[in-house]
Structure formats: structure tokens, C-alpha cells
Amino acid sequence: MLDIEVIEDPAAAEASLDPIRTRILQELAEPGSATQLAAKVGLPRQKVNYHLKALERHGLVELVEERRKGNVTERVLQATAASYLISPAALASVAPDPHRFADRFSAFWLLALAGRMVQEVGKLIAGAAAARQKLATFAIDGEITFRTAADRAAFAEELGVAVTRLVDKYHDGGGTGGRKHRIVVALHPALKEPKQTTPSGEKEQEQDND
User: Fold this and answer.
1) Rounded to whole angstroms, how far apart are CA atoms 12 and 3?
2) What is the dihedral of CA 50, 9, 22, 73, to 10 degrees?
């Protein structure tokens, strides 16, 4: 089972978005049969079987074992991944194209880059899994609070200079057969935390980091 599977096929994406099938995928993080699932999701076994066949047809669940019980063979299935992510490739004709924006300060460009990353890394994960190889990646995730918009702009400028310096230092422009890598550096405001209700029933004012 993969930690995350990226769905590229439009039909598979449609199948995964059905609320009942999403619940079934969640329950199948651990192997289970149609009978076991029926009790958990509150549906007849025949109805669960219908959904399982659709998910199996699109490669979202897989057979783990078959158990013989009298004259009946019980099929035990498991989800192919713990979590799923739909790739922009599933909406290929309307997927965002990073080349349309190419503006460092465009939120739409950031989204387009993120979409491309999902698509490319998804393909790389699938290829590495098929080859039984590890995929070498690296990421940094953190938060920073800026006192002013000017500080934020200065940070972005210095970050760009530092990354460019590192790229110039390590990039092999001689074409000696090294493996090409893609680097994406992003900075965006953190989502505001929801207002908290105090014991008196009043809502505390949310913090504004803009």
C-alpha cells in the first residue's frame, strides 16, 4: 500500500469522489470483505459489492486474499493507498499551465506550479514503485511571521538571490549526463485560524498576519 496515490485517470477520479466510495476507501485502509464493510457503512452487502467492483476496476482497491466459507468464496480487499490525490492530468483540457503566468508574485502561477508538482511527482512515485526503487526528494515546510510587508518583500528578494546562487554553484551546465531535478520555492500567507469561542460565549478576535 502506498502512503499517497495520485489519480490521473478521469474515470478513476470520478469514482473516487463518490461519497460512499470515499468512505469505503477510508475503511479499506485495513483489509476487509464486502460483508464487513456493509456493517461499517450501513449498506446492503450487494450494494457494497457494486461499489467495490467499480473501485477495483479503476485500480483503487486490490485483492488481498480469497477465503473459502462453505460454498461461498469471500474476497478480502484493501485500498491501494492510505490517501489519494487527484492530479491535474485528470482534467487535462482545463489543467493550469505554468507557462501561462510565469510571474513570481502571481498566486495563480503558484497554484499552477503546485499542480504540475502533483502531476510530476505522482508519475515519479508510480515509476519508482514499479521499479521497486526509492525516489529521492527533499522538501522544507515551516512558518515565518513578518512584521511588515516590506520585511516580507526583502525576505523574498534575499531568498531568490540565495537560491539562484546555489543553483549557479551546483548546476551542471556541461551536459555530462547528470539527472535533471526541478526546484520550486514558494511563500504564501498562512491560513488564519478560526475564531475561538470564549467561556462567556464571545468570539476571540482572529489574528491578522497581513
Assistant:
1) 18
2) 40
Measured between its terminal Cα atoms, the distance across the chain in Å is 41
Residues 17, 20, 21, 25, CA torsion sign:
positive
- Indicate the DSSP class of residue 29: T
**How far, rounded to the nearest angstrom, does the alpha carbon of residue 21 sit from its chain's CA centroid?**
18
pLDDT for the residue numbered 176: 73
Query: Which grid cell is 113?
Result: 506550479
Q: Is 124 helix (H, G, I), strand (E, B) or coil?
A: helix
Ranges of each domain in the chain: 2-84, 87-170
Q: What is the chain's alpha carbon radius of gyration, rounded to the nearest angstrom?
A: 23
Residues 6+ apart with CB under 8 A from 145: 209
Q: Which residues contact 70 (CB under 8 A, 6 or more apart)?
A: none
Q: Specify whether domain 2-84 bears CATH 1.10.10.10.
A: yes
pLDDT at 201: 59
Inter-residue contact 26 to 75 (CB < 8 Å): no
Nearest to 10 by CA among 83, 86, 67: 86
pTM of the model: 0.78
Cell, residue 114:
503546485
CB atoms inside a 10 Å sphere around CB 112: 20
pLDDT below 70 — which residues of the chain? 197-210
